[in-house]
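quick one, 242 residues, struct below
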Amino acid sequence: MRFKISVCTSLVLAAVASVAQAGSMVTSITPVIRYADSSFTTTLPITTNGLGEVTSGAGVYQLDITFTATAAAGEKGWANTLFDAGVTGTGLTLDQATGYSPNAGTLDINGNAPGGVTPIYGTNTDAGAPGDLKGLLASIASATIVTSATDTRNLLGTAGAPANAGFPSLIGSIFVNWSGAGKGNVVLNNQQFSFTLTDGTFGTTQIGNGASVTFTAVPEPATVSMIGLALLGFVGVIRRRG
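---
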């Protein structure tokens, strides 16, 4: 019986050690362009408040999805991620007609030799139902990639990432329609990700934290004035009663 307990304890400790050594991925979603409407011809400024919430009003917003990655000991580099896009609150809808716009950037892995232009991501697509922005999948064939001065795909999510991905590294973009009223959030959820190990196998699939950005309406000046007058009146009533 003692031997069995010892074995179980060893297995638990091994599992804990495995989790502790797993790499990390931090995902962000950032408004980068605001269009007046779905014709995508006129751009408007984006404003935020002190909390980082978008306050610039109605429009069609392009949101870039980026990430940073930190490999742990025994890991070769970031390999893949899968997540859903959605909205909560009021005033926001996903622009499913435009859909997902993946980063289609390339790099030349042969340097000066011809024939080396290669997509950064092996797969980068909306893998769910067409246009539903569920099951967004980005991955590289990390196990077959040899990191070199000209091929830095295994360094995605780090400062050494390919130039056309950047740091934080761009996965792709989604678009949302905001009415300019109410308060809502664009969220990336149900995220999973993994790294490739140095032996060429996949590491443990991990649960990611996703990301979100908040859109909140700013009261019109007239509304603010009315609130101010109401407060003054309330104060006056209190003083008269006093």
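The helical segments are 2-21, 221-241.
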